[in-house]
Amino acid sequence: MYVSESEGAKFWLSVITDLKNRGVEDILIACIDGLKGFPEAIATVFPLTQIQTCVVHQIRNSLRYIAEKDKKEFVADLKLVYQAVNKEQGFENLVVLDEKWSKKYPVRLSVGK
After folding, report:
1. Do 102 and 94 meet the contact criterion of CB atoms below 8 Å apart?
2. Helix/strand/coil (H/E/C) assignment for every residue in 51-74
3. Hey, is 103 helix, strand or coil?
4. How many domains does the chain contain in total?
5. Taking 70 as the threshold, does the pLDDT of residue 111 lie above it?
6. Neighbours of 71 (CB within 10 A)
7. More exposed terminus of the chain, fewer Cβ within 10 Å: N or C?
8. Which residue has the higher pLDDT, 62 or 4?
9. Are residues 64 and 37 in the same domain?
10. Is there a contact between 49 and 42 (Cβ–Cβ < 8 Å)?
11. Same structural domain, 65 and 97
12. Which range marks the domain in which residue 39 is found?
């Protein structure tokens, strides 16, 4: 367990370096929260790591741009995307989400545009 008063990219670089020094040879996938500099810190020590943003953080970030009165309905539609049984169904649900909401939130949603 790592604890610090500030959890910036510099701190996480030291954590990742420590993991390597303890014998971790590679990280295949890193699911991160969007902290600036964190992907670069990981890539410095483990350059082949695939980095993705945690779906919970992606959703939270998306919801910042949705009006409070639309959030419940938007989240229900969004769940159909990230809970889809496969990539194709997820994409189809994303297209439906885009068609429904892109007029109201044009800058935020744009599938393949």
Report:
1. no
2. EEECHHHHHHHHHCCCCHHHHHHH
3. coil
4. 2
5. no
6. 12
7. N
8. 62
9. no
10. yes
11. yes
12. 9-53
Residue tagged 């790592």 (tokens): 2
Residue 84 confidence (pLDDT)? 96
Question: Do 62 and 34 sit in the same domain of this protein?
Answer: no
CA proximity to 106, closest of 78, 53, 65, 68: 65
Q: Tokens at residue 96, please?
A: 């439906």
At residue 38, what is the residue type?
F
- What angle is formed at CA 83 by the lines to CA 98 and CA 36, rounded to 5 degrees? 75
Q: Are 78 and 94 in contact (CB under 8 A)?
A: no
State whether 69 and 96 are in the same domain: yes
Query: Which residue intervals of 1-113 are DSSP H helices?
Result: 9-21, 38-45, 55-63, 68-82, 87-101
Taking the C-alpha atoms of residue 11 and residue 18, their distance in angstroms, rounded to an integer, is 11
Share of the chain above pLDDT 70, in %: 89
- Residue 106 confidence (pLDDT): 83
Task: Tell me whether residue 92 is in a domain.
Answer: yes
Give the tens place of pLDDT for each residue, 15-49.
Answer: 999 999 999 999 999 998 888 889 999 999 999 99
Residues 43 and 65 in one domain: no
Greatest Cα-to-Cα distance within the chain, rounded to the nearest angstrom: 51
